[in-house]
């Protein structure tokens, strides 16, 4: 392997214009950093010389700024899938500067194997260790690493010494067989291991090893405010009541929680709730709050696809590997987000909506039905298969000018059939077993901001017949007011 050690620039020269490149990691955790940045510099130089240079990108989920950000700013992305959350890439997507294909995270690895998305020419992976015989130990995020390493013709390894070799053992890495030979994925409890602590590749395919010492991008959490704290407390109270009523077994059930401030607040409140016993996490993204709850004995075990934690939390984990080793496990995304496993374990899923309608449909991705925010991520993998699927959202956005609740969502990601509970700072709408009219009443009375309740009540009272009283002339009146007047509170309905 020593002969393959080279600079990021030299490694980037293995990638050609038009190549499809797979990247390891999930969120900034575990993503390569220096080779993508070198690739972006190369793309800029090629463009300046009047030559085209753009790649197709397969990732586990969002990445870091040194990957998505650099390549977007260099205008070097031909197409990209799946989830992203980088502001420059978002700009490129919404100006049609790249083709973005949003998909359920659990499905990407298998669709690559099925050949639906073209070849993987090169895999660029971050590793804590690589051995002469081709064992690769990932770092703090896995994503689609096993699949891209197997499919790629060439593998470039970023060997990052910010992650100790002793991390070996924290991963559980494997790939399922494909149809018609697929069998069950035999995970019956979040801590079950079914793979190896490394992936085995043909060492001949490793064309470059680049040494780095780059930390992951820091995820910054806003301190809890009244709204996020109230949402967290409402979720915790709801789940504690479900437990007391016997609708959740007394042992409790594994929790999945999305990314961001609300998700972190929800986990904090669950950890503080005295009725809820110590619990397990079966999720994609393990955030800071999980590490803190583990130290307090409130989280027993966490299985995820990445440790998307602050630099201080990752240091904490690495300095106390003896404590965390039997409490943490990182899997490929097709296992962490597997619909089969999520349903078998009875996972309680908690994700954040961008917008909901009063009948219980959820938009997670598109502002005003047009502009992509981030993407679907794993929210669909978990929601559709949950024991109880919960969506959280502040009741308003943009200083109250946007209501999170509208008559009809402007884009549909999760339908009324998959959404069981919606929670805001005002309360909990438990939609289980309710008809569309009952759901609308329940959501307006429990979740909607008081400024918008009269407008949504008026909408319901427009005398529309049928199972779901949508008024086709006015179902987007809220969005029209946002676009034309900049404030949904100025919504006007047309006369009948
Ligand atoms: O924008 O910061 O410019 O004001 O959206 O909103 O409230 O900070 O919440 O960071 O949790 O993001 C749905 C985008 C929420 C995210 C979404 C504006 C709001 C703000 C962010 P500003 P908040 P969050 C696990 C599961 C889909 C994927 C998923 C997401 C910005 O949670 O991408 O669930 N989810 N994955 O002002 C216009 C509205 C708005 C709005 C909020 N209705 N209209 N703007 N905003 N509501 C993760 C993975 O899969 C990896």
From TrEMBL:
Domain Acetyl-CoA hydrolase/transferase N-terminal: 4-210
Keywords: Transferase
Domain Acetyl-CoA hydrolase/transferase C-terminal: 315-459
Record flagged with keyword Cell cycle: no
Record-level Gene Ontology MF annotations: acetate CoA-transferase activity; acetyl-CoA hydrolase activity
Matching InterPro entries: AcetylCoA_hyd_C, AcetylCoA_hyd_C_sf, ActCoA_hydro, ActCoA_hydro_N, NagB/RpiA_transferase-like, Succinate_CoA_transferase
UniProt xrefs under SUPFAM superfamilies: NagB/RpiA/CoA transferase-like
Signal peptide boundaries: none
Protein transport found in the keyword field: no
Catalytic site: 284 (5-glutamyl coenzyme a thioester intermediate)
GO BP annotations listed: acetate metabolic process; acetyl-CoA metabolic process
List of residues binding CoA: 258-262, 374, 378, 398
Family the entry assigns: Belongs to the acetyl-CoA hydrolase/transferase family.
Name of the protein in question: Succinate CoA transferase
Protein species of origin: Porphyromonas circumdentaria
């Amino acid at each position: 392997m020593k002969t393959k050690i080279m600079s990021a620039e030299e490694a980037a020269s293995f990638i050609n214009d038009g190549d499809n490149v797979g990247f390891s990691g999930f969120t900034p955790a575990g993503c390569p950093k220096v080779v993508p940045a070198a690739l972006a510099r190369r793309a800029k130089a090629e463009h300046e010389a009047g030559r085209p240079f753009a790649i197709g990108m397969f990732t586990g989920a969002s990445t870091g700024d040194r990957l998505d950000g650099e390549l977007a700013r260099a205008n070097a992305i031909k197409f990209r899938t799946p989830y992203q959350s980088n502001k420059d890439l978002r700009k490129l997507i919404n100006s049609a500067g790249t083709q973005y294909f949003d998909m359920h995270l659990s499905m990407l690895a298998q669709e690559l194997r099925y050949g639906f998305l073209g070849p993987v020419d090169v895999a660029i992976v971050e590793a804590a260790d690589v051995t002469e015989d081709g064992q690769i130990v990932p770092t703090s995020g896995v994503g689609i690493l096993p699949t891209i390493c197997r499919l790629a013709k060439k593998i470039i390894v970023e060997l990052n010494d910010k992650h100790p070799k002793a991390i070996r053992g924290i991963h559980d890495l494997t790939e399922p067989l494909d149809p018609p030979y697929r069998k069950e994925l035999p995970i019956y409890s979040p801590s079950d291991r079914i793979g190896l602590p490394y992936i085995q590749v043909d060492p001949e395919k490793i064309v470059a090893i680049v040494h780095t010492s780059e930390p992951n991008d820091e995820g910054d959490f806003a301190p809890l405010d009244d709204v996020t704290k109230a949402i967290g407390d409402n979720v915790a109270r709801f789940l504690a009541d479900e437990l007391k009523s016997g609708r959740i077994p007394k042992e409790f059930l594994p929790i999945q929680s999305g990314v961001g401030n609300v998700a972190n607040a929800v986990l904090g409140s669950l950890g503080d709730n005295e009725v809820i016993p110590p619990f397990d996490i079966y999720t994609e993204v393990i955030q800071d709050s999980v590490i803190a709850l583990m130290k307090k004995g409130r989280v027993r075990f966490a299985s995820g696809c990445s440790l998307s934690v602050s630099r201080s939390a990752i240091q904490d984990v690495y300095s106390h590997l003896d404590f965390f080793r039997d409490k943490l496990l990182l899997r490929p995304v097709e296992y962490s987000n597997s619909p089969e496993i999520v349903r078998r374990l009875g996972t309680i899923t908690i994700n954040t909506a961008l917008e909901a309608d009063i009948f219980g449909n959820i938009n997670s991705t598109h502002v005003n039905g047009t502009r992509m925010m981030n993407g679907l991520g794993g929210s669909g993998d978990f929601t559709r298969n949950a024991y109880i699927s919960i969506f959280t959202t502040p009741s308003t956005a943009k200083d109250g000018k946007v209501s999170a609740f509208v008559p009809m969502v402007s884009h549909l990601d999760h339908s009324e059939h998959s959404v069981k509970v919606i929670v805001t700072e005002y309360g909990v709408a438990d939609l289980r077993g309710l008809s569309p009219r009952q759901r609308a009443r329940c959501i307006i009375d429990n979740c909607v901001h008081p400024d918008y309740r009269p407008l949504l009540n008026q909408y319901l009272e427009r005398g529309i017949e049928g199972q779901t009283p949508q008024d086709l002339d006015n179902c987007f009146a809220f969005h029209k007011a946002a676009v034309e007047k900049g404030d949904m509170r100025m919504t006007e309905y047309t006369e009948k």
